[in-house]
């Protein structure tokens, strides 16, 4: 029953985790913030973890672990609810104090309805030369003061606090009361639940991303953007309300689970306690444990950068919407991971892997997965062809590596007196996009909303009618095929990753003493949070921002969210940095394999005794890890060892 309750808790927390990552781009656009700020919001979850992880991992084993896990689930639900609050609390601009949601105002030059006599957003030589909008001081003041994304940040931090006791206390509870040969299977079941959750979370994210953020309060027929537009914001707040309810409900069963259980196969499970600092000294003297932590930091840094920014990368690389991307990620990746976790759990139980065998299997599988990951450099698409940014106006499709503002204007549109910093792209019938209908030289428009068509466009020289429609041009079927290859390779890599994860985690659990297991798992999680969870999305987001070709504009003229990236530089960062991090992790991994040869492992027997028994340390390491214990606790430990 505890395993079932914990699996449901893993399911709920993983749904909210994947949903947060999937909606990060939508939150970035909603609050018009750069990528590194969005990365900081994502990292606030790990900050919440860090506030309690060490003390929960150590002192939690001395308290009522199921109740602490249940309380954590409820706190996670409250955090999810707080994340959704900005949608309901953001009043309208200019001091209107109402609970109506503030309408998301995306950057545009076109008006919601066409057939207007003025058509002020089109090419016209009669208007004033000075078209730089004068910022309204009230708008600027409101924009600065209404930092509603801080609610999301604090809510995510609280969600991280609530998640703290679930993993270390849940794993240690299973380790304490399950047969050692059964625990890999139980952990595999947990991880499978941890992967089913993201599948549901991605489906929920895909559903929410297809719904306009202010649906119900605006007329969606007047929208001039679609879900594939980089200005589109989906209803990100809907999923967080659902996640809040799920996390609270999954926490209820833990309040009815006993604190202790009879250990499988034994009549009693004697507790051995000692002091916190000696435990810490023992763990830091364990060379295999320290090296494993280093391997984990490098490898998980690689996975984190890839995982968090995959929706943004695939949007820019292959020209798909967030809703479509997150749905495809779920379909291709998560079933492979779930199957891999269950298969390796059953295989390890059947074959009774020793620690040494588990380490070699994990190393070989991880190396194979890394080599396959390098093939992703093959699936590439060019930048969107945007005149003045990535392509010249002379229609020869000459790629420009960097944004140069004086190239935004050309002979065909200098007479139009256009704004050069507004992003409201149109796609010409010549296959080239322009930053606005005005910059395309269009003089007339017909239709309304997303069906608006611009005519008499002087910059569009083609065999057609020199017309344009709203949005960027499609990248073509060849790019769609490359996306399929990317996803198929990602599915294979995900399956191999899952096969390597459980043997690798087994090495962690078996290289530390039983009385140090709860603290060891918690300390391992602590280092992952502080060296991966917090800094990775921030520095990766900052590197991603450096590849931005065109920034959106806030009301008072400050840069907002990035609208378009230089895809070649973005690709090198998105694929190159994780490849380097993961490649460097194999050096300490090799050191672990060398050290394992020096340990004397229990000989294989046909009895029911575990092949995962704790390793006997060499004399030198035993001296380092020797800590002062009371005679009573030492006798108890000796009795447990003999048993």
UniProtKB/TrEMBL annotation:
PROSITE patterns: KAZAL_2 (PS51465). Its main location: membrane. It holds the Pfam family Kazal_2. The chain crosses the membrane at residues 38-60, 67-89, 185-213, 233-257, 288-305, 325-347, 359-379, 485-509, 521-542, 573-596. One of its GO terms (cellular component) is basolateral plasma membrane. The keyword Transmembrane applies. Residues 629-643 have a biased composition (Basic and acidic residues). Residues 620-643 are annotated as: Disordered. Residues 406-461 form the Kazal-like domain. Keywords: Cell membrane, Disulfide bond, Ion transport, Membrane, Transmembrane, Transmembrane helix, Transport. Belongs to the organo anion transporter (TC 2.A.60) family. NCBIfam families: oat. This is Solute carrier organic anion transporter family member. It comes from Myodes glareolus.
